Amino acid sequence: MKLLFATGGTAGHINPALAAASYIRETYPDSEILFIGTADHMESRLVPNAGFAFKTIEINGFRRSLSPKAILDNVKTVFRLLSSERKSKQMIKEFHPDVVIGFGGYVSGPVLSQAARMHIPCCIHEQNAFPGITNKQLAKKVDRVMITVEDAKKHLEAKNEPIVTGLPVRGEILRKDRSDARKELSIPEGKMLVLSFGGSLGAAPLNDAMHDILLQNAASGEVYHIHSAGTNGAKYLEQLKAEGFDCITDTVLRKGTVEVRQYIDNMDVCMAAADVVIGRAGASSLSEIEALGKASILIPSPYVAENHQFHNAMALVNRNAARIIEEKDLTSEALNTELNALLSSPETIFEIEKNAKAMAVLDSRERIADVIITLAKTK
């Protein structure tokens, strides 16, 4: 069985594809798997590191501007698109796949479009509640559309009924026990733990809103709190040092029951131990929150394509499985009010946890693999 995966651009596209491909490789060791991506994005590093064959095409998206530079860039994009379609067709002919699978990103467009024209079984996976432009277009052409949440259906015109497969969650997240995690972090019984982060790079608006809350929790000692300022948050840590936080390492500060890190490298432990999670609304993070059944306050990034994080968050909020504060409404006072409302009501936390857990799809890899294998048998 030969499988061709096309994806790239961000970890949100690449990691789910790698999770599905890895599961298929483990289950069907005789399968041949090839990834197509771009040379200048994360997939050029992540895919070979995972041990998969990797080839590249040159493709990027159109710029939404009428400036002279944007128009020139868009003309170049048209030529890249034509070239990438020719190269995709050549790669498909050489590899002769049984199924072609797209996990989003611009690279999926030319590869899946060519495969559909060549009558090769095709499927795509959409991670977000509001699908991206590429997957919206491909949904009309491919044989199967897999979606992370039911809400995505209303935004897609698909040849066949979309299949809810969920999004693969890292095994270490699923295996982590809450009690063991809290012992590992030295969180006493009966104490609440808040975990907050704005992604690996950090989010300045979240850091700013969190500042007074961190100082308050450090002074009171009533709530344990782990906050990640992100790899771009060095100045934020310097500010907290000046305000009395002790330097544990170059990238970790502590004061009382509050710990501020530049980066969280044991997210599985911190997430499992937390009572309330505060963060962005990327699809992968939300799948982990659902898998562990965590109460959360979501602050969707307004800077992403199609404002998809807002739609991701609302998929939970509409099911009473999370709370939301839009960034335009984010202040320290608003966040603190929402946080205290949860911390003071264990019953509310329990209800949100239950609803979040009900949304989890814990066998996502198996569901995705089943769709792909079923398509392979139709060839």
Task: Provide keyphrases for this structure.
379 residues, alpha/beta, eight-stranded mixed β-sheet, seven-stranded parallel β-sheet, 17% strand
Structure description:
By secondary structure, the chain is α/β, with parallel strands linked by helices. Helix content is 46%, strand content 17%. The chain has 15 helices and 15 strands. The protein has helices spanning 11-27, 43-49, 68-95, 108-117, 133-138, 171-175, 178-184, 204-220, 234-242, 267-273, 283-292, 308-317, 332-343, 346-359, 364-378, and strands spanning 2-6, 32-37, 53-56, 99-102, 122-126, 144-147, 163-164, 192-197, 223-228, 246-249, 252-255, 258-261, 276-279, 295-298, 323-324. Strands 10-11-12-9-8-13-14-15 form an 8-stranded mixed β-sheet, sandwiched between helices. Strands 3-2-1-4-5-6-7 form a 7-stranded parallel β-sheet, with helices on both faces. Strand 10 and strand 11 (252-255) form a beta hairpin. Helix 3 (68-95) packs across helix 4 and helix 8 packs across helix 13 (332-343). It is elongated and about 65 Å long. The termini are close together. The mean pLDDT is 92.
SSE blueprint:
Elements: E1 2-6, H1 11-27, E2 32-37, H2 43-49, E3 53-56, H3 68-95, E4 99-102, H4 108-117, E5 122-126, H5 133-138, E6 144-147, E7 163-164, H6 171-175, H7 178-184, E8 192-197, H8 204-220, E9 223-228, H9 234-242, E10 246-249, E11 252-255, E12 258-261, H10 267-273, E13 276-279, H11 283-292, E14 295-298, H12 308-317, E15 323-324, H13 332-343, H14 346-359, H15 364-378
Parallel strand pairs: 1-2, 1-4, 2-3, 4-5, 5-6, 6-7, 8-9, 8-13, 9-12, 13-14, 14-15
Antiparallel strand pairs: 10-11, 11-12
Helix pairs in contact: 1-15, 3-4, 7-10, 8-13, 11-14
